[in-house]
Sequence to fold (332 residues):
Amino acid sequence: MRSPSEFRKGKPGFYPDQSVYAEFACAELGLEFRDLDGGSGLLVSLASRNKSIQFGAGRSSWYPQNNATASTLAYDKYFTDRILQAAGVPTLGGDYFFLHARHHAHRPAGHERSDAISYFRALGDSTFVKPLTGSRGDFAQAVYGEAALARYLDEVTRYYDAVLMQRIVEGTEYRVFLLDDDALFCARKHPPFVSGDGVQSLRDLLAAHNEVLRARGLSPVALTLDDPSLDIVPAKGERREIPGRMNLSAGGTMVLAAAPSDRAVALARQAARALGLRVAAIDLFVDIGRDPDDIAVIEVNSNPSIRLLENSGRGDLILTIWRHTLSAMGLL
Fold:
């Protein structure tokens, strides 16, 4: 079997991961792969002798075995939370708040920006906040103090309509990837970091890290400009973790690992079933507050990235996922 990375060679840097894996799967399974957008990978077709299906990058779903209702419900973090709570799945809770006055007449009271301030105070002037329908860790961060919250909301208002605010918890983060009820793999998630060179200050290293994030269309790490600790020069090779979001796109890392517990896998399955998803990546906190029995679902991803598998040399699992997709769509 050829490596998925072989199909990435010669592609432009923006070429979508899943288009690489689609071409790889077609080569392995005897199907035809066609790029419909001049080699960009943004619109592709996969075909057998009798049938073809199309995939698009960006917000398009790469897992058509997930129906549209399930996928769009999972896309809304508050709706997902409410569905999981109704199903008895422990979550981080939280509430949503709109950032613009438009469409005010079409929503219930209690969810305006002014209400966010009251909710923030009830959380003890600290919260983990993220866009209600965001992805890739964009603008997902902990916020402390009303002044910092006001700055955050002013900035995120430029890009999103609403945010979800939750209590801040500490735990170990895992991802469980499910195909129907099969836990295909689990991964341990780790935060991004910068590595010292013995010359640049932490402030400079973070500024360079932020430039990379901006180039990817993601929000930068929030810096307190007058924080003297940012002027420290880390030793060469010294790693400084950046707490908060752990998304791969934001510089985080994931490592394939054994499931943290049978209960964590069972909760992941329960979450996917509650939303009606056949393919899902469930992010969970385990050992919350160092309590091994305290587990909560963070998010449910209905269109998850699988770059981890390519990076880990697990083309076999990529092929398993695509075989499931193509079989569901009648191409195999």
About this structure: The mean pLDDT is 91. The domain at 67-75+171-192+242-302 is CATH 3.30.470.20 (D-amino Acid Aminotransferase; Chain A, domain 1).
